[in-house]
Amino acid sequence: MSKQQTIAWVETVLRSLPSTTFDEEALRHRLLETLLVPPRLPKMTYEEFLAWADEDTLAEWVDGEVVMTTPASDRHQDMVGFLEGVLRSFVEMHQMGVVRSAPFQMKLEQGREPDLLFVQQEHVSRLKENYLDGPADLVVEIVSPESVGRDRGEKFYEYARGGVPEYWLIDPQMHWAEFYRLEGERYRPAFSGEQGEYHAWQLPGFWLRVEWLWQVPLPAVEDVLLEVGGEPYARRWIERLRQRGFLPTDSIP
Question: Does pTM surpass 0.85?
């Protein structure tokens, strides 16, 4: 039952009660508080959590408890889609590993759900059916008002202790991006700002122009890849066009 349906049901019940001396407003608040507060789930193991959650569940596993998260905003989804498209294409072109986006769990000391993660080819054995068993080589979190405490606090230290070598924090509201590299068990800032170029540590050859992230609309993935990937990326697409018959085989060397 949705929130609106619950409120409508409470109003119907109140109207059906006989006229007595009860405090109708107090009763209305009590009913709504009881019905609208989600039930507290019991503690569970990580295996039980994975069996309980489905691929559409917005939740993380923290200290044996289920922590529900709110749906992402439209801007948040756009940015995740943009970065996933750019990173996935670059990674696949160079056969560097795999890129995964939420909802997909990464199990360290807690079961977290990063917005994006990259796993190098040599570490793909960590990938299980529905979670990553161990640290990703790169994690990206898009900061929102709801997640800022977790992304800059709990997750920041958990990812460092868990051995995630590179962590990106991108804040669309503030137009600010931070990039961290792991040194020992602590993150050290590698680059931050509203504009400029950041060259990824765990993705050799990949770089990001930070101001791309604040454009409305976001740049086309193909345009970014042409700039980042340069001639090898252009030649890759030329060859694909030739294979599909859109270009003559002798048109471009």
Answer: no
